[in-house]
């Protein structure tokens, strides 16, 4: 399965377009950056119910727990599920997975909005396909299918009973006297864990735009991650939103979520206002059902091979002669550039020259995507507002066959709020944009999650204190300090997953799975050796931080040129990239670092304290 390069315009006036990019960027920058959003992740926040409430699973009272346990995994989304899988595989069975949702699934538990699908290749995104024998029904799998598959994994591998749900952790504190983490929850639990794994994910806490008067609106409001089908009608598997037929609805946001939900809102609402600060790139979807003959042809190891192909296509570069197995918006730029290099016989080019050539292809692809808007949207003024004026990957790429045609409906109105950097205000009856009040019945927030905001906003746990009462939020306030991105000095027996200081993979689930695998190895080694405390030395931590920064690829010039989004911390002065400090030599090199470290077997850089308080040399 492969594809040809796309047909893009070749005569592109890059200096003129670049100037347009800067103009469009500047009029959208908000001085408050990530602080322009309303917090929801802490008890007592004005809109805390957005995060704390669960519209999907009834709350079941239970008695508080008081227990000692080997491992607590913080989070029951993909990272927690895959970490549980690797703990079981390592023979570690005395653990719990804590989540405030009503079941496993993470963002796929919460997100149930109409049209929800995986927006990148599901054959790569859904993990453990060869291990389970499961196959997605189509290239971009439906959200309910993903949730059901995610929830099937703990059952299949024997740890579904380890989930502790509808439980919010309020504090994590290191108790030096017992060498354990004390975990306090809103259910009155006192759990004393030898090890804690932070698996709370990137898309965790919903955020709301800080619109003046947001608390004065008398109509219905909800975030897309808490979709209210009782109000809209329909259900996730059959999103016929028939209760909106006589309703005036507005949706704020035009990112990946809105691109999927807007076609259903436009079809069913009496009137729909789409409030846009920055348009997305929206390519064709072409979401074909899974070909059974293709499935029969697959050989062992096919998923890792496909994930590696996708990673090179999306984030690095194709190898000479390598075919694009993915063939969508995520791989188009490198596919087209590889075709050019193929035609030239794959000449040797420096990294600098490669990036210059890639930039040209980037401009060509974005010009094609802007032309697509014109071909599908009838009203020229609306089409102009929907055109994305920025570099590829400044915002998350999207694909949908129905999004642009929805704006041809007479009941759908696009309102561009870029000139005022967002909606000006909300009133009792509606919202104000362009100095005009629009009366509505329902406001839907497709405003995303806390991704590049301050850590305490992203994690939503009031207290995380390591040795000496030091807060992790203070410890990392001026930048990450870690060993391999998975442990940090001063926070013994605590392990981290996700975007800290490690390799970056195009398939998020593959990255989190490998983190879980490595953490499970470290915990297994500690338990086997009788260690009560495991902690990186200051020297090892400093060496890794130095190595990360000396080998880093500078992404900040590109990010500074981008329009504000969660990718670049809303153009924050703090220079935050959603992927943290990614390992410059790349994913394969990072995997080699970890494998070599494990193969050596001496746990280099970790200090182990045994029950009798002896110290193992690092």
Description of the molecule:
This protein has 618 residues and is an alpha/beta fold. The chain is 33% helix and 16% strand. The strands form 6 sheets. Strands 2, 3, 4, 5, 6, 7, 19 and 20 form an 8-stranded mixed β-sheet that branches. The chain has a 5-stranded parallel β-sheet with strand order 9-18-10-11-14, with helices on one face. A 3-stranded antiparallel β-sheet has the order 15-16-17, with no helix packed on it. Helix 3 links the parallel strand 2 (66-74) and strand 3. The radius of gyration is 24 Å and the shape is globular. The model is unreliable at 614-618 (pLDDT under 50).
Keywords:
618 residues; alpha/beta; eight-stranded mixed beta sheet; five-stranded parallel beta sheet; 21 helices; disordered C terminus
Q: Strand portion, in percent? A: 15-25%
Structural class by SSE content: alpha/beta
Main beta sheet: strand number and arrangement?
A: 8 strands, mixed
Rg, Å, rounded: 24 Å
| Number of H/I helices | 21
Q: Give the beta-strand count.
A: 23
Terminal CA distance: 48 Å
Global mean pLDDT: 93
Shape summary: globular
Helix content: 25-40%
The low-pLDDT segments are 614-618
Quick structural gist:
The protein has 21 helices and 23 strands. By secondary structure, the protein is of the alpha/beta class. The chain is globular and about 75 Å long.
Can you lay out the helices and strands and say which pair or pack?
Blueprint: H1 14-26, E1 37-38, H2 48-52, E2 66-74, H3 78-89, E3 95-98, H4 107-110, H5 122-125, H6 129-132, H7 143-156, E4 163-164, E5 169-175, E6 180-185, E7 190-198, E8 208-209, E9 220-223, H8 229-232, E10 248-252, H9 256-268, E11 271-276, E12 282-283, H10 292-297, H11 302-315, H12 332-343, H13 351-376, H14 380-385, E13 398-399, H15 403-406, E14 412-416, E15 425-426, E16 430-433, E17 436-439, E18 442-445, H16 455-459, E19 463-465, H17 472-475, E20 494-496, H18 508-529, E21 531-536, H19 538-550, H20 556-561, H21 587-600, E22 606-610, E23 615-616
Parallel strand pairs: 2-3, 2-7, 3-4, 5-19, 7-20, 9-18, 10-11, 10-18, 11-14, 12-13
Antiparallel strand pairs: 1-8, 5-6, 6-7, 15-16, 16-17, 21-22, 22-23
Helix pairs in contact: 3-7, 3-18, 12-13
């Amino acid at each position: 399965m492969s594809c040809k390069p796309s047909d893009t315009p070749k005569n592109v006036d890059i200096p003129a377009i670049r100037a347009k990019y800067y103009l469009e960027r500047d009029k959208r920058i908000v001085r408050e950056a990530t602080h322009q959003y309303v917090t929801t992740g802490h008890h007592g926040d004005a809109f805390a119910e957005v995060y704390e409430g669960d519209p999907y699973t009834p709350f079941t009272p239970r008695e508080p727990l008081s227990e000692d346990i080997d491992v607590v995994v913080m989070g029951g989304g993909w990272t927690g599920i895959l970490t549980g899988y690797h703990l079981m595989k390592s023979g570690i069975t005395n653990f719990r997975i804590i989540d405030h949702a009503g079941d496993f699934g993470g963002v796929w538990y919460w997100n149930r909005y109409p049209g929800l699908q995986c927006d990148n290749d599901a054959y790569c995104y859904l993990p453990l396909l060869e291990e389970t024998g499961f196959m997605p029904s189509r290239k971009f799998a439906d959200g309910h299918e993903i949730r059901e598959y995610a929830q099937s994994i703990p059952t299949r591998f024997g740890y579904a009973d380890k989930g502790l749900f509808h439980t919010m952790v309020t504090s994590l504190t290191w108790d030096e006297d017992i060498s354990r983490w004390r975990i306090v929850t809103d259910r009155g639990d006192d759990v004393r864990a030898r090890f804690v794994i932070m698996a709370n994910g990137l898309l965790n806490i919903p955020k709301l735009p800080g619109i003046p008067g947001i608390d004065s609106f008398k109509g219905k409001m909800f975030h897309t991650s808490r979709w209210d089908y009782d109000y809209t009608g329909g259900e996730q598997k059959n999103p016929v939103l028939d209760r909106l037929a006589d309703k005036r609805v507005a949706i704020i946001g035009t990112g990946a979520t809105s691109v999927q939900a807007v076609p259903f809102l436009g079809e069913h609402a009496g009137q729909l206002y789409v409030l846009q600060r920055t348009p997305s790139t929206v390519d064709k979807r072409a979401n074909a059902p899974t070909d059974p003959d293709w499935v029969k042809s697959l050989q062992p190891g096919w998923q890792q091979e496909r994930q590696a192909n996708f990673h090179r296509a999306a984030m690095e570069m194709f190898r000479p002669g390598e075919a694009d197995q993915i063939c969508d918006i995520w791989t188009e730029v490198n596919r087209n550039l590889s075709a050019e290099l193929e035609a030239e016989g794959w000449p040797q080019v420096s990294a600098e020259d490669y990036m210059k050539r890639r930039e040209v292809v980037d401009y060509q692809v974005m010009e094609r995507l802007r032309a697509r808007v014109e071909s599908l949207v009838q009203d020229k003024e609306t089409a102009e507002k929907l055109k994305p004026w920025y570099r590829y990957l400044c915002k998350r790429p999207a694909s949908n066959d129905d999004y642009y045609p929805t704006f041809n409906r007479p009941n759908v109105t696009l309102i561009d709020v870029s000139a005022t950097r967002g909606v000006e205000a909300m009133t009792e009856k509606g919202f104000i944009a362009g100095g005009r009040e629009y009366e509505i019945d329902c406001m839907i927030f497709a405003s995303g999650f806390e991704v590049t905001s301050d850590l305490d906003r992203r994690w939503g746990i009031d207290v995380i204190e390591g040795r000496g009462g030091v807060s992790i939020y203070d410890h990392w306030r001026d930048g990450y300090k870690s060993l391999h991105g998975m442990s940090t000095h001063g926070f013994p027996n605590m392990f981290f997953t996700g975007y800290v200081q490690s390799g970056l993979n195009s398939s998020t689930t593959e990255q989190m799975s490998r983190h879980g695998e490595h953490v499970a190895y470290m915990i297994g080694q500690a338990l086997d050796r009788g260690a009560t405390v495991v902690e990186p030395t200051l020297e090892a931590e400093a060496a890794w931080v130095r190595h990360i920064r000396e080998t880093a690829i500078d992404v900040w010039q590109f990010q500074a040129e981008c329009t504000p989004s969660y990718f670049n911390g809303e153009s924050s002065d703090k220079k935050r990239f959603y992927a943290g400090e990614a390992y410059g030599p790349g994913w394969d090199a990072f995997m080699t670092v970890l494998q070599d470290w494990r193969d050596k077997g001496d746990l280099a850089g970790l200090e182990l304290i045994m029950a009798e308080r002896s110290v193992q040399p690092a």
